[in-house]
Specification:
single chain; alpha/beta; Phosphatidylinositol Transfer Protein Sec14p; five-stranded mixed sheet; 15 helices; 7 strands; phosphatidylinositol bisphosphate binding; CRAL-TRIO_dom
Length: 285
């Protein structure tokens, strides 16, 4: 069993493989055929991506083992990396270390939820010092986390859930966000992220949150819109989606209040610099 602050790279259990079969069409036969076909498609394309089995599965699982769809996702990733090259080119964990270690704006829970999904909380209110951390830096940190999450077979299969916490949000936070930043984040989530985003929960939104939502709403597509939930301070509404026993006391749960954060998680990122360097080569030939 991996420790609380470790990437779980263990092979899928029989139970997890059954979920993959039911939800992703994954069987040994389908997997082998899809990997072979995706390799052929990749070789004949203008894309430059590693073609080892582990890497191809990162793209085949969220696209339910349809090679053409996996290739399209790869192309979306390449296009996204090209569009935001100034922000993402050769991005390494050390480049976003302050966001994790000094500010603790992003935290991955050490436990999964009732469906085996990874849980992450992003602090967009009182913990966000907009004079020290920009919107761009937060995005770079989220992009780095994605590179680590895709390494986990359990997360590839079960997906991830994000909680955005706006407690203490003020006008300064609203002004620190932009339409271009909102578009970038939603393009990433909806088109260029090889993770199954199963739900996005918003909690502790103040009245001025409507100003923030007006930035994001135009870019939200129907599929994601159905997976977005707004709870305010009513944690009971959050519990309808994630039961209390899987949440810390901070969110009305029965688990201990969070006493860890990005500072504890950051060393994990440094353990996988070889994979992240490999990931950074993805793009067009």
């Amino acid at each position: 069993m991996p420790g609380p602050f470790e990437i779980d790279r263990s092979p899928p259990s029989a139970e997890l493989l059954e979920v993959a079969k039911q939800e992703l069409r994954e069987t040994p036969e389908v997997r082998a055929a899809a990997i072979e076909e995706l390799r052929k498609l990749l070789k004949a394309s203008d894309l430059n991506f590693p073609d080892d089995e582990e890497f191809l599965l990162i793209y085949l699982r969220p696209t339910k083992f349809y090679p053409e769809s996996a290739l399209k996702l790869m192309r979306n990733v390449a296009e996204f990396n090209k569009t935001y090259k100034d922000l993402l080119h050769n991005l390494m964990p050390v480049d976003v270390k302050p966001v994790f270690v000094d500010h603790g704006l992003i935290n991955i829970f050490t436990n999964r939820d009732q469906k085996g999904r990874r849980l992450m909380v992003v602090q967009m209110g009182e913990k966000w010092n907009t004079k020290e951390v920009t919107e761009d830096q937060i995005f770079r940190a989220l992009y780095t986390i994605q590179k680590l999450a895709v390494l986990e077979p359990a997360t590839q299969i079960n997906g991830a859930v994000v909680i955005y916490d706006f407690k203490g949000m003020g006008m300064g936070h609203v002004k620190a966000m932009s339409t271009s930043g909102a578009k970038r984040l939603l393009t990433f989530i909806q088109e260029a992220c090889p993770l199954r985003m199963k739900a996005v929960h918003f909690v502790n939104e103040p009245m001025i949150f409507n100003m923030v939502w007006s930035l994001f709403k135009p870019f939200v597509k129907e599929k994601l819109n159905k997976r977005m939930f707004f709870h305010g301070e009513k944690m009971a509404k959050l519990h309808e989606h994630i039961p209390k026993e899987y949440l810390p006391a901070n969110y009305g749960g029965t688990l201990p209040a969070l006493d860890y954060g990005g500072k504890e998680w950051y060393p994990v990122a440094e353990q996988f610099t070889e994979f992240i360097t490999k990931w950074n080569t993805c793009g067009f030939k």
